[in-house]
């Protein structure tokens, strides 16, 4: 499996979260045997996503365990002026502190789960079709200079060509490139700063020479195009 070094953390996350299909997961496992950096990234991802593991059911703490913990605590010195319940209060304070720490940990875990599972909704979605009206791809524009391109058809791309993604923010601005696709694969692109996407904004895929259009404008044949709609 070939991949850019900069994509290693993302591949590790997708592998740990089970987002890869069986073939891709097998390729990652084979690559791990030869790639220490990938091994380390996957180990780091597993540690980071550990709070999301719901395979363990919560267990209550038995009184016997509390007694063993209390017996392991160092004995407090007794002074003549000390009240008889001083040690008991100390244990209760220790229990309270332990429960407080546990509650704080649970709150942090819930916050982490929320952060990891929260999804950013796209501002507009464009379904791209070819000249025959067949769906070829879907573009989701998040309005934060990022766009997701999901290919739904197989494109024949020669080795000296590449698929380039475009949008038309306005007639005055003209077509703007959102980026290039690596091979014939869906991707999340980081494009230039553009105005907030709007309904009926044009998106299209063109076949350009390797490295992208030399003019900064679409020059190759249009593979698919479509107009954006706002999700309801």
From TrEMBL:
The keyword Transmembrane applies. This is Anti-sigma-K factor RskA. It holds the Pfam family RskA_C. Residues 102-222 form the Anti-sigma K factor RskA C-terminal domain. GO terms for cellular component: plasma membrane. Keywords: Membrane, Transmembrane, Transmembrane helix. GO terms for molecular function: sigma factor antagonist activity. Signal peptide: none annotated. Residues 208-232 are annotated as: Disordered. InterPro entries: Anti-sigma-K/W_factor, RskA_C. GO terms for biological process: regulation of translation. The chain crosses the membrane at residues 96-116. It comes from Agrobacterium larrymoorei.
């Amino acid at each position: 499996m070939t991949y850019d070094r900069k994509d290693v953390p993302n591949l590790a996350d997708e592998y740990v979260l089970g987002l890869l299909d069986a073939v891709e997961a097998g390729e990652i496992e084979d690559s791990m045997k030869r790639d220490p950096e990938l091994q380390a990234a996957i180990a780091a991802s597993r540690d980071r996503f550990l709070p999301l593991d719901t395979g363990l059911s919560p267990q209550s703490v038995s009184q016997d365990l509390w007694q063993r913990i209390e017996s392991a605590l160092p004995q407090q010195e007794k002074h003549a002026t000390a009240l008889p319940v001083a040690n008991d209060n100390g244990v209760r304070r220790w229990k309270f502190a332990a429960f407080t720490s546990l509650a704080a940990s649970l709150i942090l875990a819930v916050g982490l789960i929320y952060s990891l599972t929260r999804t950013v909704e796209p501002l507009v979605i464009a379904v791209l079709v070819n000249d025959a009206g067949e769906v070829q791809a879907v573009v989701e524009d998040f309005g934060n200079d990022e766009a997701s391109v999901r290919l739904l058809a197989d494109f024949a791309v020669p080795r000296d060509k590449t698929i380039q993604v475009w949008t038309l923010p306005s007639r005055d601005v003209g077509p703007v490139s959102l980026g290039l696709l690596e091979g014939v694969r869906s991707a999340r692109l980081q494009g230039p700063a553009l105005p907030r996407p709007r309904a009926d904004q044009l998106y299209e895929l063109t076949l350009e020479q390797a490295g992208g259009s030399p003019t900064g404008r679409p020059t190759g044949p249009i593979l698919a195009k479509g107009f954006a709609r706002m999700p309801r």
